[in-house]
Amino acid sequence: MVGKLTRDDELSASRISALANASPYQTPNELLAEMIGIDEGKPATRLEQNDAMLFGDLTEDTILDQAAKRLQLSDLRLNFHSAFHHPTLPFAASLDGTAIGDRQWAADPAKGIYTPQGTAMVDLVGQGVLEAKLTSAPPESVPAPHRGAPWQLQSQMMCTGLKWGVVAVLYTSPIELRLFLYQADPAIQTRIASMIQDFEDRRRERRWYPILTPEDGAVAHSRSNPDHPPVELASEDARQWLDQLVTAKKNKAIADQEIGEASAAIMEIMGEAEL
Q1: How far apart are the first and last CA of the chain?
Q2: CA-CA distance, 195 to 6, in Å (whole number)?
Q3: How many Å apart are CA 85 and CA 206, to the nearest integer?
Q4: If pLDDT is split at 50, 70 and 90, which confidence band does 153 have?
Q5: How far apart are CA 240 and CA 108, in angstroms?
Q6: What CA–CA distance (Å, rounded) separates 51 from 63?
């Protein structure tokens, strides 16, 4: 494990799940705001390493060593000193590992081997990509979209030109190593390419994605523009949303008051009795 190899100002394979709105940690607008900030000279965001991140790094090589043994892979490589850049698109990938296989594999849950793409056999012949994950989430038959597949792994294959990959996930509750086998997916890779091109267009034009939540809106529209033309809220669509907002807030206030009254009444009735 060498650490981050991609540049702060470029998209990386590990960020594609956020770009696809498939990450619980970052929305597309948050990613866009981060990159626009870097373009404007702001420092890149640095997450302070917590125990989960630390032990994920420390166990990475062990996870991939066991994955290679279970899948009978050879020439396991775990150290890289530079990122792999896509030949035409503005993004890159760091790799946890690569290895060489010489056979096809079918799903075998008893051995922790899964084939989420649904094919009877996955061809692990030649060199492929290995990605390690450590999580406290319960074991899955298909990894969560932000847990290496399909977005990160397919992006890594795009940057390296390799045709298969394995996401090796060590679950800790209970402790179980599961290996998710994939082959290059042209449909997903085409979608990734389209998302990256759209992202770079939005980044250049300062054009935000549709807002998902109020918090997301605060990110997308964190500053006012004095040159922006006045916005009319008299349209039927705007009136409908304003009416819904006013009504919802009024109902919430009534509900909060009723909850308080009912809670107080029940506490009065219960007194010091045990529940």
Answers
A1: 53
A2: 19
A3: 25
A4: very high
A5: 54
A6: 17
pTM of the model: 0.82
144 contact partners, CB below 8 Å, separation of at least 6? 137
Q: Which amino acid is at 73?
A: L
DSSP state of 110: G
Give the Å distances, CA to CA, from 174 to 62, 108, 170: 18, 19, 10
Per DSSP, the residues of 41-82 read TPPPP-PPP-HHHHHHHHHHHHHHHHHHHHTT-EEEE---SS
Average pLDDT over residues 124-128: 98
DSSP 140: -
Q: Write down the pLDDT at residue 234.
A: 66
How far apart, in whole angstroms, are the C-alpha atoms of residue 4 and residue 61? 16
Return the closest-CA partner of residue 162 out of 100, 228, 206, 115: 100
Distances (CA, A) of 189 to 13, 92, 165, 244: 12, 14, 14, 40
CB atoms within 10 A of CB 257: 10
Confidence (pLDDT) at 10: 96
Q: Please name every residue paired with 104 in a beta bridge, in sequence order, or none if there are none.
A: 123
Distance CA 56, CA 169 (A): 10
Which tens digit of pLDDT belongs to each residue from 226-259?
Answer: 666 676 666 777 677 667 777 777 778 787 888 8
| Full strand arrangement of the beta sheet holding 84-85 | 11-12, 91-93, 84-85
The predicted-structure confidence for 80-104, as pLDDT tens digits, reads as follows 999 999 999 999 999 999 999 999 9
Q: In sequence order, what are the residues at sequence separation of 6 or more whose Cβ sits closer than 8 angstroms to the Cβ of residue 150?
A: 116, 182, 185, 188
Q: At how many degrees (to 10) do helices 186-205 and 28-39 cross?
A: 50
Query: What values do phi and psi take at 121, rounded to 5?
Result: -135, 145
- The single-letter DSSP state of residue 108 is B
